[in-house]
Amino acid sequence: MLRLRTCILTHPPSSPATHPVPCLHRLLSAAAPAVSPGSRFAVEDYLVDTCGLTRAQALKASTKLSHLKSPTNPDAVLAFLAGLGLSSADVAALVARDPKFLCAGVERTLSPILAGLTGLGLSRSEIARVASLAPRSFRSRSVVSGLEYYLPLFSSSESLLRGLKKYKYFLSSDPERVVKPNIELLRECGIGTSDIAKLCLAVPWLLSAKPERVQVMLACAKRLGVPRGSGMFRHALKAVESLSEEKLAAKVEYLRNTFRWSDAEVGIALRKAPLMLTKSNQTMQSKSEFLISEMGLEPAYLAHCPKANSSMKGYLAQIKVLSDEITLACAPLSNHEIISYVRSGNGGPYDIKPRSPVVTAATELPARLTKLSFTAASPEKLRYFASHEDELAKLKLNEMGGGVAAATCQGASSGEERRKQPA
């Protein structure tokens, strides 16, 4: 591989060419040592010395290249890949993944494919990524017509490459016989073009699945009660992609028992947040223990508040509330109103605004509590404090470092003046 790159760099083409492969081929052929008629082409050594494979990789790959009698065609293929801009490591990975790529005809197959993909508007670097991600599909001339269909489906070349990275095999599926029937099934469910693109990116294997499998997915999503044509239906399909009807029933039953929901409540929760089905049982058990046992939230509230089930623990864990230093004293607000203050972020301060706070007696909610920020942190345990004492209504905002504010109570000097939530 080093010999190849040295030759290319020291003998650049005299003028730019649309397809530099023939020139590179001539340079490489001139630089390559001739194989004498009586000698045998050592494929394994070639894979190690020229392609950069490890000895173990070369031993495995050489079994698929035993018919090669000379390095002529492999050299031409390596020149083609170098012309695309693939690094030595990329070439080694490609050859290890698909050794037969070295047998592809450059002038007969690879160069026409390059011309076709360029005609679709793909840049040379994007074409190189397609070759790296799906080498078997790339050396088939049907890849041009396939990408011509997939590009508008994914809405952009970047999205297509992301989908290809997740599942490379859809590129080898027949668009007419396999992909189009699946897309038509999705359209019949009221899924729009933009949502189909997002679904293809999230579940790229859906494109190459048998239509019967797609119909099972649609039936499972329908059982969740999510209306077809709604924006949530796409998420419902993502949630059930790997679940059979039996596994779906078992998962729903587990959630019902774990969160102490009635049949109606588990239905409400799944219609609002179907992606709960993608979480492990251990994760959901942990969320239930935290939200119900530690935070004291009611199961019915969680069923109607999907963010509490899917991400509440995550963004509560970013709020640092220490019993000896910080009291979140929201006066007469209930636990549910306190929870409604929390808005998630990517770290750093949050703006907290009350949502229909319930104020009792003569105590008014301090205006400064309508916009607070809290320190981003990840403590192992959280404590939420609330108080109904009048003296706790007077709060002071202290800077906690980094310009992040926290609410501290000036009037509560003893533990008896504060009411802790159950630990």
Automatic annotation (TrEMBL):
SMART domains listed in its UniProt record: Mterf
Any one GO biological process: DNA-templated transcription termination
One Gene Ontology molecular-function label: nucleic acid binding
Sorted UniProt keywords: Transcription, Transcription regulation, Transcription termination, Transit peptide
Family: Belongs to the mTERF family.
Protein name, UniProt field: mTERF domain-containing protein 1, mitochondrial
